[in-house]
């Protein structure tokens, strides 16, 4: 289909008007939109593809950068487009930068200029190479060489950063003026893209190599290219050494300098921008109602504000997919290498204007299921024989309808009670479970929360223990409760510990709490049954008494050693004795070094970074903790760990139990009550009040032809199908990889049913069911059209973060680059209109994938830098494994919001700008947040009145160092900024500590690591350089 995708014309590319033949500037050309359409047949280039038109958006095609996104977006289906834009690389970007000479040389290889020119031109259809519409509309103009008009978006062509350098070709090119050889080097030129079938490539392309562990493809022998990449300095990064081999001179094609007038610096606006993609989707679908009655429809982006009406498929808040059109055969899936996966967030919170899930109660008979595959009654079951039987949509088995469930069919073959039964008409609903779905066939007890406080010297001295005890008095009033009940059914218990454990009897009949001590940590047991887990409302007075006494009891302690595994063991034993599930809240200050099971030693070794053994830093220590995870899951005991370290604590091991039990790890380095107290308390409040289910097991069923093969999340897998979670809350998501085991039919599509069996906070056993139907197609174009970039990057992040446990980081990064290049090359080869090799053509739905992918490669776990703390890297790895799509999207592309020129009277917050230094201004003020960190950046030339309004000091130089909140001042700017910050804090699952940084101050370095479109301090390419590199890889695959 011509669809073309996004073509970026490179900055350089922008020919100056009149250059070389190209019509004046891109713009001029035909403006067809080409981009859009996704589906049509590929057409020859010239003609603007028909279908393509779909999205006229394309600003004139090539326009320099129209907002890139736009073009795509339409087709993109928003989906892919992730919002993130890519920043332009600094000019000098790494990739691009190599020394000119090399480039030239390479370039020269290319066919003689003239020839190229011609080739190109012709290809191009010539036309406007420049920013114009690119003929067809190649979209944004990154592209280098003249893009063929085809619909592609010539994205990248040569974006090289410094354009000049990049221009790549140097003299040689010049001649031909723009046309520069196609990027690829001669070969490409001729045949133009068409290039040999991919397959030949040495790379895995054609068929991906067998996946290695963790779902990651192992690099095939061929994979050399990437290697090159790695060589660079940093992971991705640093400047590449010279033009690397294949890179024909960078991009030879790059328009050779476009020959003509000197080029301007590469313009970041010509490459796809996430902020633009996000903004366009919000404009198109924001505020609208998304109805789920169409199979395989691509939902709005996660960043878009929309409401959902369930009409037979689960809301995208519960399930999102990497693509909403599956390839019909395994061969097609192998050819395109687009991962097929669904990200399930079974407990996602719904906005107030959406209906909560209905609970269906079939009494003692329980839910109606298929006899063969055990799928639950849902909209995909077809009633036949007058309503007496139903055919299962998953396995096609014909089942008898139980007498009590019988209903007549109407003239369309639908049951007369269709709209009265949620399980027949909705995508998501719940069933009340019967005793056969309960442990030991008896009704479960309500869950319990146990607060386990480390009272060693560090926590007492910092004031943490007192802070926790004070906060619990109010927090316990807000324990989660079922809708419509007066008080929470959750029981509570309290333990304090250092080297030994202290249990407290807080039975309501007592005047004073009683303490029982267990000093034998090797054989942990709970010394009291009655009075340990109590109803908070009944024992309130005794509990208050206890919370007042704890800080004083240990005020003079000098004990600095702690235990950890026995603390978890004690919690599990308490739940066993009470026959309930629940959650442990553990507040721990340091690594457990006391002599007891689970004792840890410092194994942090920076010498392992960038070696084959680096993976050991992420692997938990085996033994005690593995066994504990298993016991916790069996009992439904979830562990939430709050860490307050002042040095290395082996977070990879300490976080192992939380990460297998549906728990979370929170970390506050060098905790101080004044600056970190509020940040920690916000996390604790959110954590305790989350909607949550316990003792859960989930299974994903699919229709014939494909199945769920791999699962990523804070879960425990005892076998290959049951996903066990001691608890599952509203922020936890499981990413499920899907594989073919037969051919899928375009007619019947592909169906999935995710069933979660769990215990509610009031002790009821329920089944929550989410159903989703996808399209199937034998046309790759359809698959690319309905991809969702945000979901793809969630899958890539989780599979890469799992892979680093058993492969060197260098291999994992290579695999990511290879797979990115393969997906895009397959699109170019099979779906895009033919065009000059030097154009980078991206599918609309994936046009911002390179931004996210580059950001992922620069993330702490994947960067081999000795400057990053091992615990920090392990923490991010564990956090991401449990994240849903919106959280990984924000983490990998932070929001950068300008606050200095906003309208304080408007309701809406200002629109974010690209996450790059180029967006900052000396007189500006920006808020940056990624869900875990938040910065308020102040330019050195900030106007004094702005500083006065916000901080109540006359100028920037009067600002105090460690402020973590803004003073409450009575003026419109202060109120607006504080309301934006608190709105952001409320929306995110985690609390973020506000860090105020001034331009050019030392702390600003920390802030700059989050400008993901720029080169990274720890060795990572800028977006532009990465794009250039990927373009080179794509060209190699195609030749």
From TrEMBL:
Composition skew (Pro residues), residue ranges: 134-162
Compositionally biased residues, Gly residues: 214-225, 247-259
Gelsolin-like domain segment(s): 910-981
Biased composition (Polar residues): 69-81, 115-125
Positions of the Sec23/Sec24 trunk domain: 444-687
Zinc finger Sec23/Sec24-type domain ranges (all copies): 367-405
Protein topology in the membrane: Peripheral membrane protein
Classification via CDD domains: Sec24-like
Transmembrane segments: none
The UniProt record lists the keyword Glycoprotein: no
Domain Sec23/Sec24 beta-sandwich: 693-777
Bias (Low complexity): 163-182, 190-204
Region Disordered, residue ranges: 33-265
GO BP: COPII-coated vesicle cargo loading; intracellular protein transport
One cellular component term from this protein's GO annotations in UniProt: endoplasmic reticulum membrane
Occurrences of domain Sec23/Sec24 helical (ranges): 789-888
Subcellular location: Cytoplasm, Cytosol; Cytoplasmic vesicle, COPII-coated vesicle membrane; Endoplasmic reticulum membrane
GO molecular function, one term: SNARE binding
InterPro entries reported in the protein's UniProt record: ADF-H/Gelsolin-like_dom_sf (IPR029006), Beta-sandwich_Sec23_24 (IPR012990), Gelsolin-like_dom (IPR007123), Gelsolin-like_dom_sf (IPR036180), Sec23/24_helical_dom (IPR006900), Sec23/24_helical_dom_sf (IPR036175), Sec23/24_trunk_dom (IPR006896), SEC23_SEC24_subfamily (IPR050550)
Highest taxon of source: Eukaryota
Pfam annotation, one family: Gelsolin
Sequence similarity: Belongs to the SEC23/SEC24 family. SEC24 subfamily.
Protein's UniProt name: Protein transport protein Sec24D isoform X1
């Amino acid at each position: 289909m011509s669809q073309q995708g996004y073509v970026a014309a490179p900055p350089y590319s922008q020919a100056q008007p009149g250059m070389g033949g190209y019509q004046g500037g891109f713009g001029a050309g035909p403006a067809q939109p080409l981009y859009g359409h996704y589906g049509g047949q590929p057409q020859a280039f010239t003609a603007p593809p028909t279908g393509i038109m779909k999205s006229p958006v394309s600003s004139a095609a090539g326009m320099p950068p129209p907002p890139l996104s736009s073009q795509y977006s339409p087709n993109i289906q928003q989906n892919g487009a992730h919002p993130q834009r890519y920043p332009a690389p600094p000019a000098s970007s790494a990739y691009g930068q190599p020394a000119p000479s090399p480039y030239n040389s390479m370039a020269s290889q290319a066919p003689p200029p003239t020839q190229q020119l011609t080739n190109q031109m012709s290809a191009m259809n010539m036309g406007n190479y420049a920013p114009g519409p690119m003929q067809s509309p190649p979209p944004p103009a990154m592209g280098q060489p003249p893009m063929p008009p085809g619909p592609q978006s010539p994205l990248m062509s040569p974006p090289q950063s410094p354009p000049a350098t990049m221009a790549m070709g140097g003299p040689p090119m010049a001649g031909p003026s723009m046309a520069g050889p196609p990027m690829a080097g001669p070969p490409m030129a001729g045949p133009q893209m068409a290039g040999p079938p991919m397959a030949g490539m040495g790379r895995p392309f054609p068929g991906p190599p067998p996946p290695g562990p963790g779902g990651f493809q192992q690099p095939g022998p061929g994979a050399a290219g990437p290697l090159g990449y790695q060589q660079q300095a940093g992971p991705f990064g640093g400047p590449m050494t010279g033009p690397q081999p294949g890179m024909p001179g960078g991009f030879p094609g790059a328009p050779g300098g476009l020959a003509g007038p000197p080029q301007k610096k590469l313009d970041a606006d010509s490459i796809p921008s996430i902020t633009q993609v996000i903004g366009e989707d919000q404009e198109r679908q924001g505020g609208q109602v998304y109805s789920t009655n169409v199979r395989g429809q691509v939902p709005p982006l996660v960043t878009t504000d929309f409401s959902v009406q369930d009409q037979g498929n689960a809301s995208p808040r519960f399930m999102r997919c990497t693509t909403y059109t599956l390839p019909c055969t395994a061969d097609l899936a192998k050819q395109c290498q687009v991962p097929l996966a669904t990200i399930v967030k079974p407990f996602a919170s719904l906005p107030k204007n959406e209906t909560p899930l209905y609970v269906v109660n079939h009494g003692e008979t329980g839910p109606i299921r298929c006899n063969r595959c055990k799928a639950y009654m849902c909209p995909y079951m077809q009633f036949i024989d007058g309503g007496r039987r139903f055919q299962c949509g998953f396995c096609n088995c014909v089942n008898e309808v139980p007498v009590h469930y019988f209903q007549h069919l109407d003239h369309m073959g639908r049951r007369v009670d269709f709209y009265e039964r949620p399980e027949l008409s909705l995508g998501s609903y719940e069933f009340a479970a019967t005793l056969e779905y309960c442990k030991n066939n008896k009704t479960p007890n309500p869950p319990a929360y146990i607060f386990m406080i480390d009272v060693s010297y560090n926590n007492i001295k910092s004031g943490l223990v007192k802070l926790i005890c004070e906060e619990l008095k109010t927090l316990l009033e807000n324990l989660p409760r079922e809708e419509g009940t007066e008080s929470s059914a959750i029981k509570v218990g309290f333990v304090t510990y250092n080297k030994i454990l202290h249990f407290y009897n807080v039975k309501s009949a007592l005047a004073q709490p009683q303490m029982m001590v267990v000093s034998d940590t090797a054989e942990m047991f709970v010394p009291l049954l009655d009075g340990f887990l109590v109803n908070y409302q009944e024992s309130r007075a005794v509990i208050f008494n206890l919370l007042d006494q704890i800080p004083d009891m240990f005020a003079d302690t000098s004990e600095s050693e702690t235990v950890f595994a026995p603390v978890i063991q004690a919690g599990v034993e308490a739940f066993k004795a009470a026959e309930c599930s629940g959650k442990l809240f553990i507040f721990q200050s340091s690594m457990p070094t006391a002599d007891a099971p689970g004792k840890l030693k410092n194994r942090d070794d920076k010498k392992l970074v960038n070696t084959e053994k680096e993976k050991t830093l992420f692997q938990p220590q085996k033994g005690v903790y593995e066994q504990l995870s298993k016991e916790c899951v069996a009992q439904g005991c979830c562990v939430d760990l709050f860490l307050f370290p002042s040095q290395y604590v082996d977070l990879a091991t300490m976080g192992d139990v939380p990460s297998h039990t549906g728990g979370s790890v929170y970390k506050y380095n060098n905790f101080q009550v004044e600056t970190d107290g509020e940040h920690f308390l916000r996390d604790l409040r959110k954590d305790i009040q989350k909607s949550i289910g316990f003792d859960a097991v989930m299974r994903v069923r699919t229709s014939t032809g494909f199945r769920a093969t791999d699962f990523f999340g804070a879960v425990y897998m005892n076998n290959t199908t049951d996903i066990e979670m001691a608890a599952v809350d509203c922020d936890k998501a499981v990413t499920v990889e899907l594989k073919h085991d037969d051919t899928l039919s375009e007619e019947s599509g592909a169906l999935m049913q995710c069933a979660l069996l769990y215990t509610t906070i009031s002790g009821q056993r329920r089944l929550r069911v989410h159903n989703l139907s996808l399209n199937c197609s034998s046309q790759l174009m359809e698959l690319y059209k309905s991809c969702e970039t945000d979901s793809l990057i969630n899958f890539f992040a989780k599979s890469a973060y799992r892979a680093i446990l058993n492969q060197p980081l260098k291999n994992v990064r290579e695999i990511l680059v290879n797979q990115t290049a393969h997906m895009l090359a397959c699109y170019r080869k099979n779906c895009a209109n033919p065009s000059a090799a030097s154009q980078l053509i991206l599918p609309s739905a994936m046009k911002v994938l390179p931004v996210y992918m580059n950001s992922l490669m620069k993330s702490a776990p994947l960067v081999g830098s000795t400057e990053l703390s091992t615990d920090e890297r392990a923490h991010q790895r564990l956090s991401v494994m449990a994240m849903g799509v919106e959280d990984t999207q924000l983490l990998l592309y932070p929001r950068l919001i300008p606050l200095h020129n906003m309208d304080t009277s408007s309701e809406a917050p200002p629109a974010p700008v690209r996450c790059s230094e180029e967006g900052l201004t000396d007189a500006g003020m920006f808020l940056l947040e990624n869900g875990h960190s938040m910065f308020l950046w102040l330019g050195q030339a900030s106007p004094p009145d702005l500083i006065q309004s916000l901080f109540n000091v006359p100028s920037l130089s009067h600002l105090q160092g460690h402020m973590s909140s803004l003073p409450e001042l009575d003026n419109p700017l202060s109120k607006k900024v504080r309301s934006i910050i608190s709105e952001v804090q409320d929306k995110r699952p985690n609390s973020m500590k506000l860090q105020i940084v001034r331009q050019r101050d030392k702390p600003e370095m920390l802030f700059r690591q989050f400008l993901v479109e720029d080169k990274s301090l720890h060795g990572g390419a800028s977006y532009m350089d990465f794009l250039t590199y990927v373009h080179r890889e794509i060209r190699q695959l195609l030749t």
